[in-house]
C-alpha cells in the first residue's frame, strides 16, 4: 500500500525571512521613491548623455598609439588617488636614448662602442617629398575622350553583344562617353542603344545626318531599365498559382522615338547616290575568313 504524504506546514516567522544585502535594501528603497514620484507626476527624466559632452559615462582618449574608451568614474578615482599621494596627474614619458655606449672587452677593440636602440630602416625613399597627384574627383565628372574617327553619321561595326558582326549608324556621343547608335531597326534589327567605343570598328563610310533631329530626352537616363519584381508578396492570392517570369519589353514612348529617328535616317540613305549598296551594306553581316587580319584591313 502507498502511504499518503502528509503536507507539513512551515511556520511563517520573521526570523525565517532571508536577510537582504544593504545594497539590495538601498535599491528597493530607491525604487519605492521612484514609484511614488511617478504616481504623483513629479518624476524628472534624465537628459540623454552625449558621448562628446562632459556628463558622459565614457570618453574617448588617445592612449599608447590607439583611441580607447575610458570609464569616467574609474578615471576620477585614479586622479583622486594620484592627488592624495602627491603624484603628477600627467606622467611625462621618459625619452629613450637613440644611442647607447657599451663597454667592449679586448685590448684593441676601442673599449667602447655606440649601439642604436632602435633598428634602422632597411629602405629609404628616393624622394624626400613625393609628388602629389591632383585628385580627379568622381568618375561621372571625368572628361570623356572619343576617337577622332567616331563622328555622328559614321557607320560602325559591332564586335560584341547580341548584335556582334552587324553594322549600325552612329548618331551621337552621350555625356558618359558611350555611343548612341541605331540600325536602323527595319534593316538589321538594331534598336537605339548605347555602345562602348572600344567595342566598335569605325568605317570610312559616313552619312550626313545633320538634318536628323534626336529627341532631347534620349540620354543615359533614358536607357535605364526598371527592376522587375521576381518574387510575389506574401499573402498574395496570385502567388498561389504558377506565374510566368516577367521579361523586359520596350515602352510605347521608346517605340515611337525609334520610328521617328529611323524614318529620318532612312530618308538620308535614300537621298544618297549609292543608296542600293548602302541598304545591302547595313543589312549584311561582317565576318573574317582564313588569312584575313583586321589590323591589315581598311574599313
From TrEMBL:
InterPro entries cross-referenced by the UniProt entry: 60S_ribosomal_eL6, Rib_uL2_dom2, Ribosomal_eL6_KOW, Translation_prot_SH3-like_sf
A biological process term (GO) from this entry: cytoplasmic translation
Region (Disordered): 1-32, 234-255
Residues annotated as transmembrane: none
Assembly information from the UniProt record: Component of the large ribosomal subunit. May bind IPO9 with low affinity.
Family stated for the protein in its record: Belongs to the eukaryotic ribosomal protein eL6 family.
Annotated protein name in UniProt: Large ribosomal subunit protein eL6
Upper lineage: Eukaryota, Metazoa, Ecdysozoa, Arthropoda, Hexapoda
